[in-house]
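Checklist before submission:
- one chain only
- standard amino acids only
- sequence pasted in full

Submission:
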Amino acid sequence: VQLQASGGGLVQAGGSLRLSCAASGIIFSINVMGWYRQAPRKQRELVAYITRDGTATYAESVKGRFTISRDNDRNTVHLQMDSLKPEDTAIYYCNVGLHRLPGYWGQGTLVTVSS
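Returned file contents:
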């Protein structure tokens, strides 16, 4: 299983970024796809996840600002991040699971939000 994440970068507070993650090497259907993040000196936390039928769940801290989506045919998951805040600064990790999360980890992409 390989996960390739992209889309991180530097943005000013209030701005937007879109993260993408493509999964390959999986022969079974992926049930859950999601994103975790880890800020400096903090534990890794689940940001959002989405099941195969499109049901999305978000951490309270990102509700109303982030939107997760997926393309089942392409085994890709996206995270649209709007109204970004400095506290959203973290390394974001894609994660997919055959049944639940956490499952397989991607390499991480850095998101930096300047104030």
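Reviewer check: The chain has a mean pLDDT of 94.
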